[in-house]
Write a structure and sequence with these properties.
This protein has helices at residues 40-60, 99-107, 116-127, 186-190, 192-205, 219-227, 231-255, 265-269, 273-282, 287-290, 304-315, 317-323, and strands spanning 4-11, 15-21, 27-34, 65-73, 76-78, 83-86, 111-115, 136-141, 145-151, 154-155, 259-263, 294-297. By secondary structure, the chain is α/β, with parallel strands linked by helices. The chain is globular, with a radius of gyration of 20 Å. The structure holds 2-acetamido-2-deoxy-6-O-phosphono-alpha-D-mannopyranose (BMX) and zinc ion. The site of 2-acetamido-2-deoxy-6-O-phosphono-alpha-D-mannopyranose has 21 residues, from helix 3 and strand 9.
Length: 329
């Protein structure tokens, strides 16, 4: 066997997944570790270990060429220069890291780095739910809420790569404080951390309703309680989905997409959220815009990040050869 393979790494607020990805989008081998909570040096060390181990695995299963290393990470990523410029507190200390340079120097392979949901958009556009669509918006509901925009067939990066932080679109300027420093962000209402925080605050105000340790409450608990018919959890999720509906209308007004793709851990487990948002959106906003949008679940589920990250090596290979300068390895 002498096919090409790429290393794809997806760095999220809770876990880092790394795999060997083919040009068809198959993940041949994957490793997952919890994202280090001690700071950037620890995460970089985790990345080096994962890459080392994947290179060994690629050799073992007979792949002659490892084309490159593609990274998709939560945070505001300088796509042109391969730098993590900043991140919310979902990942401790995740700022000012010349990640591309560090990894390239360590492994002498081409390295690509982009926001985690931007690379989900690549996977889904080239190989998955958004294939054939030119104007698409992606939202992932996980530890945080991430966004990506494909506009007229191109991934929207903005000036340096920080565009489409759609989780930090405010739907209420008097709303709950967000990890990013802003107020009323979608992420503060409807991400895993947002849902858990809302629930914690509720019980802190009404301690008679909960006798367990409030600090240990997770979004999973809230979904479970709602499932059991507990009114406080049902109304909290109703708020979250309403916030998502308003946010979605804002997105539709801004980008006029023909397709919205929802992914991330929360959607994987509770895909009923998608038609629920869709039904609410139908009755909101500018009708010509909202009526013409389709809603879909991400095709690749929780592997979309690894596949999209790895896919960068195949997608940008031409540019590396043409421009030369973007690969200094
Ligand atoms: C946060 C933000 C985004 C990211 C999104 C989804 C940071 C560290 N993260 O809004 O850049 O795309 O979360 O990330 O700034 P995840 O952790 O849920 O995968
Ligand atoms: Zn925010």
């Amino acid at each position: 066997m002498n096919e090409e393979v790429s290393i794809g790494i997806d760095i999220g607020g809770t876990k880092i997944a790394a795999g060997l990805v083919t040009i068809e989008g198959a993940v041949l081998y994957k490793q997952v570790v919890p994202t280090a909570t001690e700071g950037k040096e620890h995460i970089i060390f985790q990345l080096q270990q994962l890459i080392q181990s994947l290179l060994g695995e690629a050799k073992k299963i007979g792949f002659r060429t490892v084309k490159g290393i593609g990274i998709g990470t939560a945070g505001q990523i300088d796509f042109k220069n391969g730098i993590v410029r900043s991140g919310t507190s979902n990942i401790k200390d995740w700022n000012d890291i010349p990640l591309k340079k560090e990894i390239q120097q360590a492994f002498a392979l081409p390295v690509w780095i982009d926001n985690d949901v931007n690379v989900v958009a690549l996977a889904e556009s080239y190989l998955g739910a958004a294939k054939g669509y030119d104007n698409v918006v992606f939202l992932t509901l996980g530890t945080g809420i991430g966004g990506a925009v494909i506009q007229e067939g191109k991934l929207l990066h903005g000036e340096w790569g920080g565009a489409a932080e759609l989780g930090h679109m405010s739907v209420d300027r008097n709303g709950p404080a967000c990890n990013c420093g802003y107020k009323g962000c979608l992420e503060a209402y409807a991400s895993g951390t947002g849902i858990a925080n809302q629930m914690k605050q509720y019980f802190t105000k009404k301690p008679e309703l909960y006798d367990g340790p409030i600090e240990n409450i997770t979004a999973r608990d809230v979904f479970q309680w709602a499932n059991e018919g507990k009114a406080f959890a049902k109304s909290l999720l109703d708020e979250a989905i309403d916030a998502l509906a308003y946010g979605t209308v804002n997105i539709i007004h801004a980008f006029n997409p023909s397709l919205l793709v929802f992914g991330g851990g929360i959607i994987d487990q509770h895909s009923w959220i998608i038609p629920d948002i869709q039904n609410r959106v139908r009755n909101l906003g500018i009708s010509s815009l909202v009526q013409s949008v389709s809603f879909s679940k991400a095709y690749f589920g929780d592997e979309a990040g690894v596949i999209g990250a790895g896919y960068q090596s195949f997608l940008y290979r031409e540019n590396v050869q043409k421009e030369g300068a973007s690969y200094e390895g």
